[in-house]
Design goal:
34% helix; globular; two-stranded antiparallel ribbon; alpha/beta; seven-stranded mixed β-sheet; Spore Coat Polysaccharide Biosynthesis Protein SpsA, Chain A; 255 residues
């Protein structure tokens, strides 16, 4: 996968998102039009306001849209979508490839959803982030791992990963983690993405179900390999789908 690289100052902190259009979106049950710029504007504005470096990887945004939204903080990088993976999964291969090219210049990284996540406060200057370079930060939801949606969502993974059902049983009563917000030191995120992409490559590439498998693979990897170094919920994220527009005490708002 050939992805354009950027030049960074040493120890750059980076927020990244992926916006793939023209492909059926199973979560929305629709196909986004190529130049759906309105869906990324709030993300762009929030990262810009924090004076952080942000990148949106995209496959179809017009040059005019990119020129109108990019600034000293925000860059747009065009990618070629690989249909062997659904967009929710393909983004991790994009991030992994880009980080691998630029790892030496990066300090901290967050990767987020782009249409329903906004940045509220700079996570990289928070003492919690600074003091915990080995910690994985992520979003969560006010529900348990064992729920009807996750059971259906994980069918393909359950059939392809030998210990997946055992993991579901072990962590059934734990909080459901949300992969719409993932962050940590660049070295940690690089390691995490290598493991996550390996799961998708080996167990989720030929997924014929109605579900993407991204939430299942994410929760499985975090709980089985990173659970001892995990921080989710406040101050990382507001309560998922509660639309807490009045809150300013977290790093990110996720709907």
């Amino acid at each position: 996968m050939a992805i354009e690289s950027l030049k960074f100052q040493p120890n750059t902190n980076l927020v990244m998102a992926c916006f793939i259009t023209g492909v059926h979106d199973v979560n929305r049950n629709t196909t986004l039009s190529y130049d759906s710029a309105a869906l990324v504007q709030d993300w762009v504005a929030s990262v810009t306001a924090a004076n952080l470096k942000g990148i949106i990887f995209h496959n179809n945004l017009s040059e005019a849209t990119c020129n109108a939204l990019q600034n000293n903080s925000i860059s747009f990088i065009k990618i070629e979508y690989d249909p062997q993976f659904n967009p929710n999964v393909f983004r991790y291969f994009v991030y992994l490839n880009f980080i691998q090219q630029n790892l030496q210049a990066l300090a901290g990284i967050f990767i987020t959803d782009v249409s329903d996540v906004v940045l509220l406060n700079n996570p990289f200057t928070d003492p919690l982030f600074i003091a915990n370079p080995a910690m994985l930060f992520c979003g969560d939801e006010p529900k348990l791992l064992h729920n009807e949606w996750m059971i259906a969502h994980s069918e393909n993974l359950r059939n392809n990963i030998p210990d997946y059902a055992a993991y579901e049983n072990t962590f059934a009563a734990q909080t459901l983690l949300n992969c719409g917000i993932i962050g940590g030191s660049a070295a940690l995120i690089f390691d995490f993405l290598q493991k996550l992409c390996a799961i998708h490559q080996n167990a989720n590439r030929d997924n014929k179900t109605a579900y993407t498998g991204d939430m299942g693979a994410f929760n499985y990897l975090v709980r089985t390999q990173f659970n001892h170094q995990l921080k989710h919920g406040a101050p990382v994220n507001t309560v998922f789908k509660m639309y807490e527009t009045e809150r300013n005490d977290c790093w990110f708002r996720h709907k």
